[in-house]
């Protein structure tokens, strides 16, 4: 009985001590604790306000830079793409307004917008890779010479369709139907294509074609129609046989490809763009800053040291002008990566590209 009383009293004493401790703690410590929390909250609110102010200032500076570049764009771009036929290619998820703005800048630089090709979502999806491969082989006049992954093959055929035919090669019956821009260096088109799809086409000519001549019966428009009827793309204008250079617009925002299926789509677009470049010549893959984030399409292209140029500031005035300057520089044999992301050589080409002559008086520079 004594033991029971002892334990009972001990238990009551413990609970009483806890109650007294909690009461004292809630009154004695409550003030300092609340003061510390309020101080930390005030500090966080201050930081948030500072960041908001910095962002607003940056936006105003950016808008001012856009206004200044817009005012000077005519002088900056005059003649940079004179005599160059340009075709725009919009990846799935690309902002149509960005491509439209780039087309206006191309015209401001003296180039001619020959048309555009909008790729459907299914074109780059892994689930359609076999179908894309089979279609490319089916429409190719030199199917036995195609190499690389599905999107490399498709890019080779689309490039063959879009490129201005090389008049000298066409007259002699030699070489590929894929022409090149007025100032593109021949080495630029012979760069091996690493398609990122498990195969390499470095044992072939441009786009893995090995330089085969499609022949007089080749119908470029029929090839475009085949891809369109397969719901892989849509065509605006008459781009067939008209491209000296290409502007490829990357997906915007979340569509820029990061992880999982997005990264797979980015790899497919990278392979397609590489093959287009190998067939046509000067090519720029342009997107906004998000497209250059780790794991996204421009970052992938830069990590793979792609032969085509990249720009990660397209979508605002200053970035669109940089994109056209990059295309002009590439047409003069100086490809590169420009913008603000990792792996860039600078914000814009330095030195700036020169104004181009007409196609007739630059033919000797090929």
UniProtKB/TrEMBL annotation:
Q: Which domain of life is it from?
A: Bacteria
Q: Which Pfam families match?
A: MctB
Q: Name one GO cellular component term.
A: membrane
Where composition is biased (Gly residues), the residues are 205-215
GO annotation (BP), single = copper ion homeostasis
Compositional bias segments (type: Acidic residues): 193-202
Protein's name in the database: Copper transporter
Q: Which organism is it from?
A: Nocardiopsis kunsanensis
